[in-house]
């Protein structure tokens, strides 16, 4: 395993982290006695494998159902100083509820403290304000820190880049969990801002939200050769020293194996990456046209600036991926989350696009005239059954 300094925390963070949202029994809290032995054995085998290969950062959340109580049966068996344990708490219903949720999680983990506490889901200006105001969630987190129950405080986010940067630039947080990977590089300015603040940078879900890379289309497999799509994406992320760790949402002990192949390329990643990136970029140009590839994102409105709250940038992005790389399954999964994801994945899909005049909101786009038709086509391509966030399923 390779390790990187996790910003001003000074923690030596493994470049892969063991994310805790896929091996748990249920997304809802249930008594420990109701958790099947087979499921618990699988979780414990996953943790043993994680530590065996040097991944000592175990990341979970109060919102991950039985994850914490199941981890509480295995983590106390290891030397505490050898572990980096992170949990996250959603800021809702007030500071007292925030504390209560944290205390419940800490008790479930059977630990005296966590190394990292993340305020889970700073996705909107309103949530950020609720964190920062006197008596807000950040103040409550700092009380927990002063009591020795938390070592470092960070935040996780699925929000737009400008909100992430605004949160980072408060200087109040030690680290950030955010999305950034090959198919979605919009948050790079936020990563740069985090580095200026000497914050740790944790990449959320690079293999799932980063493209369902554990089940890739054959076209993507071919374009990423000689690497697998998972290894390519891992290497792409970790070739940037500003990135410190990538989450592996392991559901079994075997799920680490493909990611570990990345380590042998980390000392000299650029040569093999350059050829694959060139292949991917050229294929996108071949399919979509060079002008579109270089200009499609210019002048697009935010969902809140669009009639019907349609999320035009995300819809066109998913169309690009589906057409260029055959990423249909990924596109369907993400497209049908629109309208069901709340502030975690905001905006609506294009089902009702015919009802709206988009001309004024697209006035700054060089593709103003054709975008409405492309939105309709994308709905035909990707529209289907509504998808819920995993925590709601």
Please list the strands of the largest sheet in the order they lie side by side.
3-4-5-6-7-8-9-10
Count every helix, treating DSSP H or I runs of 4 or more residues as helices.
Answer: 15
Strand content: 5-15%
CATH classification, class level of the largest domain: Alpha Beta
Low-confidence stretches: 388-393
Helix content: 25-40%
The H/E string reads EEEHEHEHEHHEHEHEHHEHHHHHH
Structural class by secondary-structure content: alpha/beta
Number of strands: 10
CATH architecture of the largest domain: Alpha-Beta Barrel
Task: Indicate the mean pLDDT.
Answer: 94
GO molecular function: oxidoreductase activity
Domain NADP-dependent oxidoreductase: 40-167
InterPro entries: AKR, AKR2_Oxidoreductase, NAD(P)_OxRdtase_dom_sf, NADP_OxRdtase_dom
Pfam families: Aldo_ket_red (PF00248)
């Amino acid at each position: 395993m390779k390790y990187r300094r996790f910003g001003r925390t000074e923690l030596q963070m493994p470049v892969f982290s063991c994310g805790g949202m896929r091996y748990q029994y249920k997304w809802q809290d249930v008594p420990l006695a109701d958790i099947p032995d087979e499921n618990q054995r699988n979780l414990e085998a996953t943790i043993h494998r994680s530590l065996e290969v040097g991944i000592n950062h175990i990341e979970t959340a109060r919102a991950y159902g039985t994850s914490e109580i199941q981890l509480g049966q295995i983590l106390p068996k290891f030397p505490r100083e050898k572990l980096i344990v992170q949990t996250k708490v959603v800021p809702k219903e007030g500071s007292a509820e925030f504390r209560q949720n944290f205390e419940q999680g800490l008790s479930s983990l059977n630990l005296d403290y966590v190394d990292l506490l993340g305020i889970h889901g700073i996705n909107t200006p309103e949530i950020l304000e609720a964190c920062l105001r006197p008596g807000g969630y950040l103040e409550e987190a700092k009380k927990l820190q002063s009591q020795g129950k938390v070592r470092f405080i960070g935040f996780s986010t699925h929000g737009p880049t400008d909100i992430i940067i605004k949160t980072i630039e408060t200087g109040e947080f030690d680290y950030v969990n955010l999305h950034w990977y090959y198919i979605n590089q919009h948050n790079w300015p936020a990563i740069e801002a985090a580095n200026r603040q000497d914050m740790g940078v944790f990449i959320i879900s690079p293999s799932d939200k980063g493209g369902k890379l554990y089940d890739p289309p054959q076209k993507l497999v071919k374009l990423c050769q000689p690497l697998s799509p998972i290894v390519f994406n891992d290497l792409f992320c970790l070739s940037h020293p500003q990135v410190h760790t990538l989450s592996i949402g392991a559901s079994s002990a075997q799920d680490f194996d493909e990611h570990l192949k990345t380590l042998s390329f980390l000392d000299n990643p650029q040569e093999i990456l350059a050829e694959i990136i060139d292949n991917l970029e050229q294929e996108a140009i071949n399919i979509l046209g060079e002008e579109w590839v270089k200009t499609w994102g210019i002048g697009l409105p935010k969902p809140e600036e669009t009639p019907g709250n349609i999320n035009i940038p995300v819809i066109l992005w998913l169309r690009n991926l589906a057409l260029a790389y055959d990423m249909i399954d990924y596109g369907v999964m993400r497209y049908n989350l629109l309208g069901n994801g709340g502030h975690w994945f905001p905006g609506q899909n294009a089902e009702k696009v015919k009802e709206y005049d988009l001309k004024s909101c697209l006035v700054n786009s060089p593709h103003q005239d054709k975008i409405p038709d492309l939105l309709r086509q994308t709905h035909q391509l990707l529209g289907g059954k509504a998808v819920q966030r995993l925590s709601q399923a």
